[in-house]
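Memo to structure team: turn this sequence into structure tokens by end of day. - J.P.
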Amino acid sequence: MVSSQLSAIITIVAIITIATSTYLMKYDDWIFRKLEKNLHLFERAATNETQHRAKEYPLVLFGYLNGGDKFIKTFHEMHHRFVVVDYDPEVIEELERKHIEFLYGDATDPELLADIDFSKAKLVVNTIADHFVNVALVRYVHRHNPDTIMICYSNDHNEAAELYRMGASYVILPHFIGSERLNSFIHTHGLNKASFEVYRNKHLAMIDKDLN
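Reply from structure team:
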């Protein structure tokens, strides 16, 4: 239905697109790190405008179902204001019933993240064991407040090692440590990042040993 010349052009474009997208997906983290500073120029104006009305939460929890309820119990005992970020409507309904403050939306949405003043955040926990989400949150939190204690969930040693290199304070590997034990650690040491650094270094040494 098309000329041979147009067919050839479409075929060439398809081949180039497929090859390019494959490399972009494989090296997306490396490309992002190279372009991160320049990408801020393209952030939506609405995101920047919401910064002045961002709410202060010393404690922030991303994800409720994967052990998040245990963190909420610990947060209550610490007597600090906190917020739960989740994208599941059923979870939001449960949080409303329990009168727990929440934000509904995607954990990587810059407009949603702008509603939180991370410069005042002391502890951020992400129970979503998705590497893309972990990377995005570690970068965002570290950029806005490198002193924040950042805890992530992961199911892979290599991904955990990468998150540590990016600045995560602790990465939960379920077979190594459960959320119950980490909650006990938080309850004991509070928001002392130095204590997390000791714990972090021990865990990172064990991961490096396993990888080697």
